[in-house]
Specification:
single chain; alpha/beta; Rossmann fold; seven-stranded mixed β-sheet; two-stranded parallel ribbon; 6 helices; globular; binds S-adenosylmethionine
């Protein structure tokens, strides 16, 4: 199944548009977990042609390719040949595991048992994928244990700031901007 753009997608999209205002159109951008391609499409339609979409789900790669978006099937960064990006965007699976949920839906919603595992794995791998002064825009929820994510980010050497948030039923969504301290 492909993730149907929802409140989280729209919050990240709105934040992304603001972030990209007045930025150089030659930035290289990676949309991790691109799904329907909503974030990658936003970048491309704003003139950021060096945008690459990545997803683990083959169905998503098919849709992205049909939309003429440059897409690679990869488990996080495992198959990514370009080594460094100016911007990495990720609206990840960010919920704790619910064993009653079907497996295909878990791929798009579930971060792991606790709700942060894939996010921390992503932040670890991304340390070697950012250009100097590169940024990450990452969305997660009050249900993803934000304190644990931010504590791990700090030990990985990231600076971070909250740039958007939105309350929705049962949770609050956050978009954080991350950069590496020494960049
Ligand atoms: C919450 S959806 C977000 C989709 C889209 N970016 C959006 O904003 O609507 C999470 C996406 O991450 C993908 N995904 C899950 N695990 C992944 C992994 N290990 N590597 C790459 N993509 C993954 C899922 O297939 C899904 O498309």
């Amino acid at each position: 199944m492909i993730y149907e753009p929802s409140e989280d997608s729209f919050l990240l999209q709105k934040t992304l548009k603001k972030f990209l205002k007045n930025k150089n159109k030659s930035l290289s951008i990676l949309d991790m977990g691109s799904g329907s391609g909503i974030q990658a499409q936003t970048c491309i339609s704003l003139g950021f042609k060096k945008t690459l979409a990545v997803d683990k789900n083959p169905e998503s790669i098919k849709i992205l390719t049909e939309k003429k978006i440059n897409a690679v099937r990869s488990n996080l960064f495992s198959k990514i040949k370009i080594k460094k990006f100016n911007l990495i965007i990720f609206n990840p699976p960010y919920l704790p595991e619910d064993p009653r949920e079907p497996k295909d839906s878990q791929l798009v919603t579930t971060a792991g048992k606790e709700g942060y595992e894939i996010i921390i794995k992503f932040l670890k791998q991304a340390t070697s994928q950012l250009k100097s002064e590169g940024k990450i825009l990452l969305l997660f929820s009050s249900l993803s244990h934000p304190k644990i994510i931010l504590k791990n980010a700090k030990s990985l050497g990231y600076n971070y700031q909250l740039i958007s948030k939105e309350k929705i039923p049962f949770e609050e969504l956050y978009v954080y901007e991350f950069s590496l301290k020494n960049s």
